[in-house]
Amino acid sequence: MKTLTDSSFNEDLINNDLILVDFWAEWCGPCKLVAPILEEIERDKGGALTVGKLDIDENLDVARRFEVMSIPTMILFKKGEPVARIVGAKSKNAILRELESHF
Amino acid sequence: MTERIKVAIIGSGPAGLTAAIYTARANLEPVVIEGEISSTSDQPGGQLMLTTEIENFPGFINGIEGPELMGNFKAQAERFGAKIHSAKVSKVDFSERPFKLWTSDELEEEEPTYLAESVIISTGARSLMLGIDRELELIGHGVSTCATCDGFFFRGKEIAVVGGGDSAMEEAIFLTKFASRVFLIVRRGELRASKIMAERALKNEKITVIWNSVVTKLNGEKALSSIEITNTIDSSVSQLEVSGLFVAIGHVPNTDVFGKQIELDENGYINTSKGTYTSVEGIFACGDVQDHTYRQAITAAGSGCMAAIDVERWLENHQ
């Protein structure tokens, strides 16, 4: 998984046609459960999808810009535009169901 | 592929994992169907996964974090050979032995995932929601099911916690770390929380209690901006400007999947007798799914141990 920051974010959107951004923080229990699942999904998709993690403790600007008020929140960006949003930790199957139509 | 097992344990909170430790040490090779991850209390590890410090679990002089405690329970069960299966039980057939269990990760519905000689149900309870309009839609936009996850976003803001029990006190006190003011909305004119928790909350300068009141409406377009409160005595209605709402009004047992196959009480909790026996021979229940009185990690763990001993003896007599 790629580590994203407030300063890298705009470029990350330009450079990745399909990127799933995981808004997380060290103190969030459910975030820790969801991280390995996102890694697995990225591996399964073999290059078709980039997964980036954004630590909201250090990068509050992007979190604010996309009105993230709960973590984990995962937003899928297609060509720079948000196309899907998942709030809360979910199982692999449930996450895939939300993303599937955008591949 | 259907697997034949001696003991299936459904749920992985303190009750289920204690049952797993005991049955694994008794060489019963238990399989724990631990649940699916979520941001609600209905998740592997159970309700403690969303709590912070636990001060009253015996053996931890300085307290322990909920997720850490549950990680320890799980590691201890695995050390003795308990198998952990990350899925939810999606269907059961308790009409004959061996019992049939299907899990959420199996797409083929035909064959059960497990044929189990005995079953321990420890699916616990989950937090109740208010059940009012727009509540689900506003989760992640001001309405939260996880104070420890979302408290951070309400730094310097005014928020509300609904409930009068221990979980509501815990959440309200925790949230004062971030929020400038926490309104505690209590249905009655008194708190049903334990004395120590109630005192802590009432003493906290950032907490303002609104007595005899219920939340009746959520306002805000994209995110919560205010809530409507109705007084339970004179039915007067008022608006409270808050950007966050945390609900801790009680629990419901996770027994939906068992349907009418096992005897439940009028609130959906499993009826147990003679320790952890249920209405179906060979099926046992422990923890919050059969206990709406004590609901503590230690009592759940204790009843998990009882279920393991009951299963072991029952299997000896029914081989």
CATH superfamily of the largest domain in chain B: FAD/NAD(P)-binding domain
Number of strands of chain A: 5
The helix count of chain B comes to 6
Q: How large, in whole angstroms, is the Cα Rg of chain B?
A: 21 Å
**Low-pLDDT residue spans of chain A:** none
Biggest interface: A-B, 25 and 29 residues
Proportion of residues in helical segments of chain A? 25-40%
Parts with pLDDT < 50 across at least 5 consecutive residues of chain B: none
Q: What is the quaternary state of this protein?
A: heterodimer
Shape annotation of chain A? globular
CATH architecture of the largest domain in chain B: 3-Layer(bba) Sandwich
Structural class by SSE content of chain A: alpha/beta
Helix/strand order of chain A, N-terminal first: EHEHEHEEH
Helicity range of chain B:
10-25%
Distance between the termini of chain A: 18 Å
Largest sheet of chain A: 5 strands, mixed
What is the count of structural domains of chain B?
2
